[in-house]
Amino acid sequence: MPAPGENLRINSERLWDSLMQMAQVGPGIAGGNNRQTLTDADNEGRHLFADWCKAAGMTMGVDTMGNMFATRPGTDPGALPVYMGSHLDTQPTGGKYDGVLGVLGALEVVRTMNDLGIETRHPIVVTNWTNEEGTRFAPAMLASGVFAGMHTQDYAYSRTDAEGKAFGDELARIGWVGDEPVGTRKMHAMLELHIEQGPILEAEGKQVGVVTHGQGLWWLEITLTGRDAHTGSTPMAMRVNAGLGMARITERVHQIAMSHQPDAVGAVGHCNVYPNSRNVIPGKAVFTVDIRSPDQAKLDAMKAEVMRAAHAVARDLGLGCEIEDVGHFDPVTFDEGLVKTVRQAAEKLGYSHMDIVSGAGHDACWINRVAPTVMIMCPCVNGLSHNEAEEISSEWAAAGTDVLLHAVLEVAEVVS
């Protein structure tokens, strides 16, 4: 059958309505969402998604990491499926679109195919990956990492949240331990639609980002150990202040990232001091350094420099210092053929577009290790994400999903 013409578009109103309905699950306090992984809100969102998939005629499979796979059959039983999707979990103060657009955009692609009676040779699978955010259970992209063989399931199940609850126990508690062994599915390709989470597309006036590469990342959790003491009665020269050590290392992380410009970033995002009392000098500080670059050499150099700086600061202040790798992936190069397919889809549809490097980690970064993978991005207002004020337009959402539709139909091979 000839390739679908440029007039073929998704139902943008239906997509937007689905996004707004999902946003009612796990509402935040300022217009966004708090639907952290394996919470009751996550469970509710999963059931809503499963109901929609069933209504669209798909069958649901769930693996032992709770990854959800909704399948639309193809005409060739022996053809490997084409996957698309992202994640439904959010940050504690997350937006309505991060990850969710990729899942519900993929669902809308299937709904549009159903509306028009389009069949493909390859089956199509819509996926919700578990714990992409990594905010409750580090590291990020945990379940797709297990799927791709980067982590063991035992490691994933043993990860704990701030209250000491284990991932495996919480997955069982909400009832989403599937019967499929994780990682056994084979893929013809995977396409992930996502908001940019940065300001480039909006600033350049582009409707679609064709993602060619992804930044590599290290998350280094640093634990500094000093001595709790009274802030009023302990002389300055006799303090062993873990909070001061954290502050100095935070400054060094910024300096190190700046010294590797361009294409390098770094910051301390997650931090805790103990006992966290206003009149007690912190005897312990635990914080995570996040450094990223699409350049492997820069990424490796920054990691080494951060570790040296942390140990040097600790020695100067008489602190104990432990550093644990809690998240990592190398820079990613997405499949050239799929990148070309996405670019051609945007051109055919008349959408302005540009090549872009993903500044954030995504499930596609891990799946890229086991299958051909590509990402499509849409702009977000002021580049704001991981924030309840995160915003996109319905037109941007539709443009990205239209491109996803045409790219998936090309890869899955339309037969009628």
UniProtKB/TrEMBL annotation:
Keyword list, A-Z: Hydrolase
Pfam entry (one): Peptidase_M20
Annotated ranges, domain Peptidase M20 dimerisation: 215-312
Entry's Gene Ontology molecular function annotations: hydrolase activity
Family: Belongs to the peptidase M20 family.
Protein name, per record: Zn-dependent hydrolase
Organism: Pseudotabrizicola sediminis
Taxonomic placement: Bacteria, Pseudomonadati, Pseudomonadota, Alphaproteobacteria, Rhodobacterales
